[in-house]
Amino acid sequence: MVRKRILVLSEDERNKLRSIIDTSSDSWERKRAHAILLYADNYPNKDIVRILNIAKVDTIRIWAKGFSETKFNAIKSNYSPGRPRKIDLTSFKKK
Questions:
Q1: Rounded to two decimals, what is the model's pTM?
Q2: pLDDT band at 94 (very low <50, low <70, confident <90, very high)
């Protein structure tokens, strides 16, 4: 069974994503914004990966899901959808 993907962007969201692509100094933010625009325009994930030179097809699905859940917070570089670290690195202080 193939699930239909749906990501509908308002004109305001599209304009903001285009602005990020044009003005952001962070290359990964630009890639994420561009990927969301292409995804919303129903480009296949494999084509988006090829266009943006991204290693994994699943990355596009993760970015699109993050955007649908948190909107522009998912575009920022500090957004991390993965599981948090198990070890607190501050507990390993040098003596």
A1: 0.74
A2: low
